[in-house]
Structure formats: C-alpha cells, structure tokens
Amino acid sequence: MSAMSSGTTGPVKVPRKSRPRGERSRGVSVALHTALVVASLVSVFPVLFVVFVSLRGRDGWQEPTKFVGFELSNYTHILTNTEFLTWFGNSVIIALGATVLGVLVAATAGYAVSRMRFPGHRPLMWTFLVVQMFPMAVLIVPLYNILGRLELLDSYTGLILTYCSISVPFCAWMLKGYFDTIPAEIDEAGRVDGLSPFGTFWRLILPLARPGLAVTGFYSFITAWGEVAFATQFMSSEKHYTLAVGLQTFVGQQKAEWGLMTAAAVLITVPAGLVFFLAQKHLVAGLTAGGTKG
Description:
By secondary structure, this protein is mostly helical. It contains 13 helices and no strands.
C-alpha cells in the first residue's frame, strides 16, 4: 500500500517565494538609483563649474579645462576694490523688508479670507490669482509711473513695495490654504479666554502656522534677493544698487569680467542657501510636530 502510494506520488513542487508587495526588484532599484545619480550630477554641475571658474583668476575662464592655478584673487578684488559690500547691504535691507512686510500682509489677508465671511472675499482671492498671471515685464511701466508719482523711485521703500506686490498674492493663497487646516475651535477658545480677533491670530494661529510662514518667508526672500528687472529700472544711483544690479557692472561693451561675476555669484548664493536651510528646518519640525500631535 505504501509502495503504491509512493509510486503514484509525484515530485513535490515548492511554491516560489513571492516578493512582498511594493518591494522593487534589484534591477529596478539599480536603474532608479542610477537615474537619480545622473540627475543629481546634471543639477550640481553648473554650480560646481561656476565655483571652479571663480577660483581660476581673472582670465582663468578662458581655459576652464585646466585644473591648475587656483587662487582667491577674484574674491579679494570684489571685496576690496568694488562696491560689493554696499550692494550686499542694500540687498539685505530690501530682501528682509520685503519678507517681513510681505509675510505679514499675506498672513493677515489669508487668515481673513479663511475665517471671515465678508462681501467680496471670494473675488479678492481670485484677484490675487489673476495678478499672478501677468508677466513682470508688463508691470514695469505702470509700477514705474506709480512710484514716480509717490516719489519712491530710487528708494528702498519703493522697491520693497514692488516686491511685496509680487509675493503677497501667492503667499496669501498658500497661507489661506494652511489656515483652513487649523481647527476653528482654536479661534473660539481664544475668544472665550478674552482675546481679541487680532490677539487670537497673533498668539494662537501664527505659532501653529509656522511651517506655512517659513515657506512663504523663504519665497518672499528669494523673490527680492535675486530679482533684476525691477531693481534695474527703479534704482538709478549706484549707492542703491542691489547685488543683481551690481553684477551688471562687470559686463562692459568690450569685455565681460567672468571671473569676477562667478565669484560674486558664489558669494550671493551663500545667504540664500542659509535662508533655505533655516526654512527647511522649521518646516520639517513643524510638520513632524503636527503629525504626531494627538
């Protein structure tokens, strides 16, 4: 009986071990990581090339393939023989002013539209969206005329207000969406405790909206820090030049000082990078705290 059973029983097939759902194969992982590495190299190469040229001296850009003759002459020339520090100070004042004022206006506008129902609150947000559709080149002439009538041309105030007109619509839209995610019960609790509407907004809502404020602040800062068109048209005196406008002085009719331009470009990116990492830190911390809060 056992013989018959053993004779009729065929080889036992062991089922193949199935791959867990969502796990990638080795080939797909290799291809994915290769694509990411290539994309990273393509993104980083222009920045590294600018740094490389800036370390090759005044005329090192003419032979960029040579890996010899590295020096800091371009950086020392910019810091000692040009008005770079003046341009840097002007850019810091304008960028910080546009960031603080722009975020404050955008936060109050976004909170008002998110929490309050007043006549025209929906058209107001759609107006913000429509404003973003106009290219900056179209706005130069009307803004120039407005600033001229207000006697704000060639002034920090005029350029700060100009940059706020660019950043506030986008920031208001973004903060409005973020305020919508904050429970309205917090506002009611603030009113029960005797806080005014502004006190509730300032003491309770803004601390919870720190991630959104960090992102909009970074956007406002970068918009003002690297903008060229408005600064070129509205700032006529060299003592009020921003960094983006000051770089144009290195380009002459006969020759362009590419070594100085690349060195200045490297120095300009340092504050922008610091602001980015600061905003990223607050953003990640805020999102993590919000996700773990019970």
